[in-house]
Structures are given as structure tokens and as C-alpha cells.
Amino acid sequence: MPVTRYTQKLRFNVIASQIAIALVCLSSPLLLTNPISAQPLTETQISSHIQRLKNPQQRSAAIDYLVSVGKPAVPALITALQEDSDAQVRASAAIILGKMGPAAAQAAIPLVRAIDDKDAAVRSHAVQAIEKIGKQAYVPHYMAGLDSEKEWERYSAAHALRAIGKDAAPAVPTLIKKLQDEDVWTRVNAGSVLGSIGKASVPAVPALVARLQDTDVTVRHSAAYALGAIAVSLQENLNQVSTKELNTVVADLEKALKVVQNPSLQFRPQAVTSVSDPLTTLKKEKINRGKSKIRGVRG
């Protein structure tokens, strides 16, 4: 279905937002699968059940059965979603994939493409399935989007990862590399996404500290706010932070604070406090842990 460049950009961002705000309850009956204990079905057998989706009297039973088959049925359902001429079959395929939930992660991108389907029911069920599969299934797709030759696709991919937040943790190594990109806005977006991921972005802290002296002031501020966001995330999850990790981050943030306090780098006051405030809390935790260790030795 032909669409304008603007429509492509808008749809990409809308989908990213839909994925980000979906409150998927993984314990929901809709997401539970009950793989059948019988011998695995052949592709022909699965296809025959998909054909039953064309019959209104058999459709409901066929949907329930294919959901029970689970992951082995996903490739055939993807084919039906993309190629079947019957809109009811395409819509039913989207429904089934949604009911499978995370088990249908392989269908994530075909479902995104189904947003373009000419049939309104298919489009609607595709959106619902996208929400039920879960955000993490889309992270590899958006990671690949960061390398797109098209500028708007790179920025849209970054926007999507930022919206996904902490569930985009697998993208951290790629984002660290993007902090070195020659494109200014790629560096800006990489820092912003790392901040939105939070605690899982701790490995990026040294690279973000380095970007505080970037030649571009926007990149510098993106790095400062990202460091602040990561530090706040650590502050909120101190029980999950080892003493070694805490000490390393505190040392890096102390370096960062010295840089952002340099008047020649033109950091806004908010950027300075975004680093200094959580650093103060983390330093107190470091001191308290040190005191506890000493008391333990003396005891």
C-alpha cells in the first residue's frame, strides 16, 4: 500500500509509542500457551488448520487450536498474515499471534508491516498483537534501524528505543558505539537512549563521560543528562548494585562533575545538578557501606 515519506515517519513513531505504553500482563490468559503433547504437526497439517480460518463456523476452534500449537505454527501464520488473499484469515492470524504473546516474537516485524494492510480489521488486530507480544521483541529491529542510510529511520529507531526504556537494554553495546558516530544527532540520540535505559547502561558511563567534552554542545548536554538518569536509576535500585560497581560509578561521576562545572564548556545549571544531585546520594551510600564493612571487621 503506497504511503508518503511523511506517513512512513509518522507510522514508525506511532508504532513505537504504542509499543512503549502497552501494559502487557504476561500472566494474562491471552498470553498463555498450552503446547499440545501429541506428535509435532507437519507444515501441511498446520496449513490445513489455517485454511479452516476461512470458515466462520470453524474459525473459533481453529484459532484456539493454533494458539495451543504455539511457536511451531508461527512461520505459517506469518505467511498467512502477509500473503493470504482472505482478510479474515489475515486478521485471524494476527489474533492468534497476539494470543501467543512473547512466543510469537518472530512475527514482530511482519505485524508492524500489517499496519499497512488494506483491511481495517487486520490493521486493528495487528496493533493489538504488537502490544501483546511485548516490547523486547522489537529491540533488534530498532537496533538495526540505527544503521539505516535514511536519516529519519535512524532517528525514529532511536525514538523507539528511548520509548521502550529499560527493556531496550540489549541495545546498550550498539549505543555505546553510536556515541562515536560522526553524525552529531546520532551521538545526541545515543546518549538520550542510554539515559532512558537506566541501570543497564552502566557500562556506557565511561563513554558518556568522554562525550562531556564533545565538540558539540548538544551532545555534551545529552551525555550529562544521560549520566544523571543512569545515576538516578542506580540510586533507586541500590539493593541491586554491588559495592564494586558503586565505587566505579562514583569515581566516574566525580570526573564527570568536574567537567560539567567547567565554564568554558557552557553546561546549563540543570545539566550540572543532573550529575551532582544523584552523585551526592551515591557517595553517601559508598561511605555507609565502607563504615559497615569496618564495623563488621571490628565485630
Amino- and carboxy-terminal Cα gap: 74 Å
Mean pLDDT, all residues: 86
By DSSP, the count of extended strands is: 0
- The name CATH uses for the topology of the largest domain is Leucine-rich Repeat Variant
Runs in which pLDDT lies below 50 for 5 or more consecutive residues are: 1-7, 19-39
Oligomeric state of this protein: single chain
How much of the sequence is in beta strands?
under 5%
Going by CATH, what is the homologous superfamily of the largest domain?
Leucine-rich Repeat Variant
**Any idea what the CATH architecture of the largest domain is?**
Alpha Horseshoe
* SSE order, one letter for each helix or strand: HHHHHHHHHHHHHHH
Reading off the top of the CATH hierarchy, the class of the largest domain is best stated as Mainly Alpha
Helix content: 55-70%
Globally, the shape reads elongated
- What does the radius of gyration come to? 24 Å
Kindly give the count of domains. Answer: 2
Structural class: mainly alpha
Largest beta-sheet characterization: none
Discrete helix count: 15
